Amino acid sequence: MVAAMIALTSGDLGTLWRLTLFTPANETAPVTWPNTLVLVVAGLPFAWALWQCLRGPLAGPPPEQDRAVRRLRTALYIAAAYGLISPFVYDWFGVAAILSAVSMVPLVVLFPPVLGASLRHAGHVRAVGLLSYGGVIAYVVLRLFSLRMPDSLALVCGGAGLLWTILILRAQRGDGRWPRSTVRYGIAGLVVPFVSMPVAWLLADLGNVYADAVAALDVLVTIWLARSAHELAAPRAEPSLLSPVPVQQPSA
């Protein structure tokens, strides 16, 4: 709010723009109440994601965790951490795309052992995930060496990543350790890019403020990753230690 007031009084949206959208400010954008409000609202998803990442698991005695769970939680936190810093990573020669894929590869390997029977055809799911994120890494690296790569390969990698995430979310929903709200964040993270791209295109005529603000919802995937890690360490409900009082039968 302080940055918003500074923008309105100084006539400069630059500071507020960089704090909420993490992109270079459009110096030609007029300082109006609608533009300022859009920038403030666009910063709320990132603030919510930051709180979701930093709040940690619920208080209470955590369940006993085996090695597979501990490793998956670590990988989830690393991927979520990259999701928070990714707006500040400049995409020099595809660096951002490589780092994003690298942060997800461990999840492809570590999710199946934890999901167990709730994930059907785990080997095929792992192969689809490796095709997606491993393919992105290979695609970008090969292009760095000026090798001509078909654009269809990028579409195949994107489709494989979408399929992998859907299968993981389906398994999470049937696992029982994650609440429906966490799964919904993951679903929203899948749906939003398909909605935000045409919306941003339609709003482009209104200025970069509106078009760039739509991209702020991409942080929903980061929230899903962080919550998935938290809830693997959430305390389980303990049965009551008090035995029920026997009901005395009335004498005949």
From TrEMBL:
Entry keyword annotation includes Chloroplast: no
Keywords for this protein: Membrane, Transmembrane, Transmembrane helix
TM ranges: 31-51, 72-90, 96-115, 127-146, 152-171, 183-203
UniProt keyword Ubl conjugation present: no
Record protein name field: DUF998 domain-containing protein
Organism whose genome encodes this protein: Nonomuraea zeae
